[in-house]
User: What shape does this take?
Amino acid sequence: MNYPAIIRMLAFTGFGFVIAMGFASLVALLLGEGLQFRVFLTTAVLLATVSSATLVMVGRPTRRAQPSDGLAFMVFFWVFAGLACAPPFLLGLPNASAAAAIHEAISCLTTTGHSVFDPAGPPLPGSILLWRALLHLAGAAATVTFAATVLAALSLDGPGIHRTPLFSISDESFFDTMPRVLKVTGLFGSICILAIFTIEVVGGIPVDMAFLDAVSAITTGLVDPLSVSSDVVRIARVLGLSLGLILGSLGIFFMIQIANRQWKKAFIDAETLSFGLALILFSVAGVLLGLTGLNAIGWTLSSLSTSGIALVAEETTGNLPLPLQLAPCLVGGAALSAAGGLKLGRLYVLGRRVGQEFKRMGFRQSLVHFQFRGRIQSDRTLMGIWVYLVAYIMASVIGLLLFSFLGLGFDDALATTLGSLTNSGHLIPRAEISDAPLYQVLAIFGMILGRLEILALIPLLTVSFWRR
Assistant: This one.
């Protein structure tokens, strides 16, 4: 394991958060939020000092970083980032729980968006809302970058759902690929946020709300906790949020195709078609269970994106059966997006293969195959997806048992488990875990596990991985 390279990457990450904290402290100063200004500034100085000292002491690595080093960095990133970004939620708010502060930071970074703070209480300071937005942006960029580099490199023989034209392995160091992907991701994300922001501002939405909406939609998160229950009634917000959630769910691969004017490929891509089909099926199910047409579409879009933004009034969807509320979040968005879930690409590959097995039943000796984005998929591909699904089921069952043993009812335990694993904050009940550190710790682990896509954790549990 190339520990010097991993530690240096964490130090550079620390500098990124220092810049974000500096910006948040400036906003706090302009808003007259003295407490938050001091917390952001002090934390930024301490983090900058630690990161600088780390770079000086560690020095440059003497050997080339491998994809396995990227996997280790991905795991350490979520832990390190959660700890480094938690102080504003601990010292800048009336909160005495370190577990709650770390939960808040991890929830924002993983774009889960769940908050343990009561949205009916005093409103969050403007600088804290900005900090939540910055963490959502950082977490979404990290999620897509890790998927397009680390997860793509670790599944060379798989279905390739994490691959884009950006995927390549550097001859010098594996970490050299990350800045390029991060740059492209940041560029496309900024353009989308600007477009959504413009739509809402032109439509008469206040600037601060438009910005929070734009970040929430494109990161498929929930920056403002109030957005989980506030009904969207103005047409400008509906258009802006809907466009953002669609783009955020389809991810960077779809955006790259659109930017390259490959319109046909973009709209007939397997993940795009799967997203459209899922949107139709769940909307129809919602209508059959009492939702009106537009409410059903709004609820489905919000749930498929795993954002939880209330595109429709909460009371209109509260009576839906729990399995139906969970199902769209389990499906999730595209592989190279900030949406959680099983991912559309995997379900598409699995569905195609199941269909072929039905055809093969009538012709036992026939040879069948299918392609996914130009590559013929083998039995090895299908086996990898089945292993992933089994791992996901096992993680869900273990989480359900742990939350149940700690005292949650079955419905709340199931919703909290799947809400954490799919990074769907609106599924996690706030009241039950707001004052329960053990629940918060389990939810933290679940949210990180969801961003690791579960299977990435398995190599980390083997001694041989750390001895490489």
